[in-house]
Design goal:
single chain; about 675 residues; six-stranded parallel beta sheet; five-stranded parallel beta sheet; 18 strands; binds thiamine diphosphate; binds magnesium ion
Length: about 675
């Protein structure tokens, strides 16, 4: 790994590749210096790889960042974010130099860890290590799915690669196992990862805590591995990428030996460069060592010109537009459909279609478990929505996530719409996020509500990145019965409702379940979680206005007069208890209101006037939910009560369990009476 700066190819009349890479190094180093915080080591170490990838292979268009058939790139070792910002600036995306100068400052586009900003070429990138790999897997899966559905012989309009960078940290994380084992099984041949094999993480040399034989590990997953690539030799990097692209039936991992902080003469190769500024002295020494004569943030014109990818990108995008126009002439319906799906819009007649399905369910008035109702929702909506890509983490028969038109998605059936994710909850969440981020597909995935803990950061990332991922979580309370407390969610609903931008629905019957599904599908800027029962629930009788009320997240089921003495607020299976208790209270002369509150977030978003009409200020309020009480106090106020469970559950059939924990009509009536 020579520190040569003279590998110029005069025939191309381009600056030497090392100098092009040094532009990344210097921008990253100087931005971290200016911020007095950040991670110079990774961008300096991976600059040569990035230079080759962006300049020779990646198909992207800075002037048309949303071009649908662009290659996707995910930075899983997201702490190296300055590498992405530097490349975005150098290649000509709409990002000003002073944004780089304000790296990590309030309001700058250059955040510590980027999330998702396609306008400047950031597809999705995670701070939490390892998740980016899984996002890349999801993107590659979406690409293959769309290609299988839309490409026609001689007319390939979906044909791009997904690349990711990852580091030691990503590969130590368990999620890399889930995602890469899955990707190998799925034979995602257009997924290419670069492992920054620099032997260093924050605590020092990784041999003390990470000694896997990574190439063997990935070969065992069914990946194609290019070993021992000198990550500072552009020719070796090119050869590795060529080899990776040539293998189309396996994902590829390119194992790049690099030196973290490459170019900083005294600190390179050590953890000192990982996450702190090099300091003025070492930064000056790096400049000298790399033969960089320019002050911070100055990129000489010849380098800027050589990096500028606007013209090349515009040509690529225009070429695709021409091909797409031809395709549209030959296959007008497919072209319209692909355009719709990439836009994220639902079909034109969706509103009427979904409304009909809900009206039908209301008229049928059938009782069933809400997990069953969710399957009925898929049966109703699924045929209309070929963009749905569903799945379950090995609980398909319990989650009821497959429906009549489900076709298993495999390498042999890439146009399928149902994924057996295997027992890989976290991997599933992050793969779903990648599918959603790619566009053209709406992912949903199931497991037991209690195992949402295993995937929680994936749920959080979908909320943070505004992705339309739909989580189908069944067995939503002690009502699941005999499997016992390890399987019975208690604090989960409360905890999940705390994630900003996550919509949590806990429907009480088939109609509410359909409305919840519709809301999830129509939500383009965030995830939705459906908490569904294992046990059967009766259908609630509603008027037309009440059916409309469901979508508002909370609505009055039983008015109890204009000034009820008590308002019972319930969700899911506990709505039945509230209805039973209200009946008894009313019979005893206590005017009681019942409010069904399937989605607190949707309710909170309603105008004040509506909320006040549902929850009147007079009278007491009692919230009833078979889970942790914490989140309900804001709805019941000082004079209110919360009837919940703040201990772990127990192993027994559902009925005795509900009795044991006080989830019976008499117990709810007693709790209500204590408040009035
Ligand atoms: C899930 C998660 N855990 C911990 C961290 C904190 N963290 C950021 S970088 C890093 C070390 C990463 O080492 P490596 O991937 O080898 O990066 P390098 O130092 O080589 O750039 C850690 C622990 C994180 N970002 N995400
Ligand atoms: Mg490392």
């Amino acid at each position: 790994m020579a520190l040569s700066t003279t590998n110029q190819d005069p025939a191309l009349a381009r600056p030497p590749r090392r100098r092009l890479a040094n532009a990344i190094r210097m921008l990253a180093m100087d931005a971290v210096e200016a911020a007095k915080s950040g991670h110079p080591g990774m961008p300096m170490g991976m600059a040569d790889i990035a230079e080759v990838l962006w300049n020779d292979y990646l198909r992207f268009a800075p002037t048309e960042p949303h071009w649908p058939d662009r290659d996707r790139f995910v930075l899983s070792n997201g702490h190296g974010s300055m590498l992405l910002y530097a490349v975005a600036y150098l290649t000509g995306y709409e990002i000003r130099l002073d944004e780089l100068k304000r790296f990590r400052q309030l309001g700058s586009r250059c955040a510590g860890h980027p999330e998702r900003e396609i306008d400047i070429g950031i597809e999705t990138t995670t701070g939490p290590l390892g998740q980016g790999i899984a996002l890349g897997v999801g993107m590659a899966l979406a690409e293959r799915s769309l290609a299988a559905q839309f490409n026609r012989p001689g007319a390939g309009v979906v044909d791009h690669h997904t690349y990711f960078f990852c580091g030691d940290g990503c590969l130590m994380e368990g999620i890399s196992h889930e995602a890469c084992s899955f990707a190998g099984m799925q034979k995602l041949g257009k997924l290419i990862g670069f492992y920054d094999d620099n032997g260093i993480s924050i605590d020092g040399e990784v041999v003390g805590w990470f000694r896997d034989d990574t190439p063997k590990r990935f070969e065992a997953y069914g990946w194609h591995v290019v070993r021992n690539v000198d990550g500072h030799d552009p020719n070796a990097i090119r050869a590795a990428i060529e080899a990776a692209r040539a293998v189309r039936d396996k994902p590829s991992l390119i194992v790049c030996k690099t030196i973290i902080g490459y170019g900083a003469p005294n600190k390179q190769g050590t953890e000192a460069t990982h996450g702190s500024p090099l300091g003025p002295e070492e930064a000056a020494a790096a400049r000298k060592n790399l033969g960089w004569e320019y002050p911070p943030f100055e990129i000489p014109d010849n380098l800027k010109r050589a990096w500028d990818a606007r013209e090349r990108g515009a040509k690529l995008a225009a070429d695709w537009q021409r091909r797409f126009a031809d395709y549209a002439r030959q296959f007008p319906e497919l072209a319209t459909e692909l355009t719709r799906r990439m836009s994220g819009d639902l079909p034109k007649d969706w509103v009427a279609f979904a409304g009909d399905a809900i009206a039908k369910a209301a008229a049928a008035g059938k009782g069933m478990a809400t997990r069953k109702a969710s399957q009925a929702a898929l049966d109703a909506f699924g045929p209309k929505l070929p963009e749905l890509i569903g799945g379950s983490a090995d609980l398909t028969p319990s989650n009821n996530t497959s429906f009549k038109q489900s076709v298993v998605l495999t390498p042999e059936q890439p146009a399928g719409n149902y994924i057996h994710y295997g027992v890989r909850e976290f991997g599933m969440a992050a793969v779903m996020n990648g599918v959603a981020a790619h566009g053209g597909c709406i992912p949903y995935g199931g497991t037991f509500l209690v195992f949402s803990d295993y995937m929680r950061n994936g749920l959080r990332m979908s909320a943070l990145m505004h992705l339309r991922s739909i989580y189908v979580f069944t067995h939503d309370s002690i009502g699941l019965g005999e499997d016992g407390p390890t399987h019975q969610p208690i604090e989960h609903l409360a905890a999940l409702r705390l994630i900003p931008n996550m919509h949590v629905w806990r429907p009480c019957d088939a109609v509410e379940t359909l409305v919840a599904w519709r809301a999830a599908l129509e939500r383009q800027n965030g995830p939705t979680l459906l908490a569904l029962t294992r046990q059967d629930l009766p259908a609630v009788v509603r008027g037309a206005e009440q059916i409309l009320g469901v979508a508002r997240g909370g609505y009055v089921l039983v008015a109890g007069g204009a000034a009820p003495k008590i308002t019972l607020i319930a969700t899911g299976s506990e709505v039945q208890l509230a209805l039973g208790a209200a009946q008894e209270l009313t019979a005893a002369g206590v005017a009681a209101r019942v409010v069904s509150m399937p989605c607190t977030q949707a309710f909170d978003a309603q105008p004040e006037e509506y909320r006040a009409s549902v929850l009147p200020s007079g009278g007491a309020r009692l919230a009833i939910e078979a889970g942790a009480t914490g989140g309900w106090w804001r709805y019941v106020g000082d004079r209110g009560g919360v009837h919940g469970i703040d201990t772990f559950g127990a192993s027994a059939p559902a009925k005795p369990l509900f009795e044991h924990f006080g989830f019976t009509v008499p117990a709810v009536v007693a709790a209500a009476r204590r408040l009035i």
